[in-house]
Amino acid sequence: MRIYLAGPEVFLPDAAALGAAKKAICARHGLEGVFPLDTQELPAADLPDWARIHAACEAHMRSCDALLANLTPFRSGGADPGTTLELGYMRALGRPLFGYTHATGDYRTRITSRRDGAAWRDEAGMEVEDFGLSDNLMIEGSIAASGGLFFRPAAPLGWNDTSLFEACVVAAARRLLG
Predict the structure, then answer these.
(1) Strand, helix or coil at 154?
(2) What order do you get walking across the sheet with 2-6 strand by strand?
(3) Average pLDDT of the segment spanning 30-35
(4) First to last CA, the chain
(5) CB–CB of 68/19 below 8 Å?
(6) Which residues contact 167 (CB under 8 A, 6 or more apart)?
(7) Cα angle vertex 14, ends 67, 48, to 5°?
(8) Which domain of life, per UniProt (predicted)?
């Protein structure tokens, strides 16, 4: 069973090595990990690089049976927008979703906010969700609705730590392989 490994790790300087380590973890548990940077035939060279990368990632996702996403906050208080789009794409395809974060706090605690009556508001006056979730409710809600699981650590983890990823893979293998 093929599982797409979504997440912002593709931007790390050692992305290929981390991708290989994650794929090896998947293999140990009976899954075939597909990392976004895995080689495949790209569309015509006359397209801009960004369009070719986008098409390749969509092809990878369509070839997979499930998605496992690193939803650790990236460049902001929330998950990487590209990763959340991939999560939504696979949800729309009806595929099971699994996710994890290396951050310990709830979404509301990571966003600068103040109490305004019954609601928390950010600096622009916009309401900040306070459901005790790691990120926007649609992220964890989609994972749960797909039959998948979401994992959070007891203490913050570094980008290259694969311990929680492996726990997520084990859970995914149990659900997907029976």
Answers:
(1) coil
(2) 32-34, 2-6, 66-70, 97-100, 150-151
(3) 98
(4) 12
(5) no
(6) 100, 151
(7) 70
(8) Bacteria
* Beta strands 66-70 and 97-100, pairing class: parallel
Element (H, E) at 32: strand 32-34
pTM of the model: 0.94
What domains does the chain contain, in order, with CATH numbers? 2-177 (3.40.50.450)
HSE of 82, CA atoms in CB hemisphere, 13 A: 16
What's residue 43's pLDDT? 65
Burial class (CB in 10 A: 0-12, 13-18, 19+), 166: middle
> pLDDT tens for residues 33-50?
999 999 776 666 788 989
Q: What are phi and psi of 30, to 5 degrees?
A: 85, 15
Q: What is the pLDDT of residues 136-166, one digit of tens each?
A: 999 999 999 999 999 999 999 999 999 999 9
* CA 144/CA 138 separation, integer angstroms: 10
Please tell me the distance from the alpha carbon of residue 65 to that of residue 106, in angstroms, as a whole number: 29
Owner of token pair 């599982």: 3
Residue 6: strand, helix, or coil: strand
SS3 content of the chain, % helix, strand, coil (to 5): 40, 15, 40
Rg from Cα positions in the chain: 17
Rounded distance between C-alpha atoms, residue 59 and residue 24, angstroms: 22
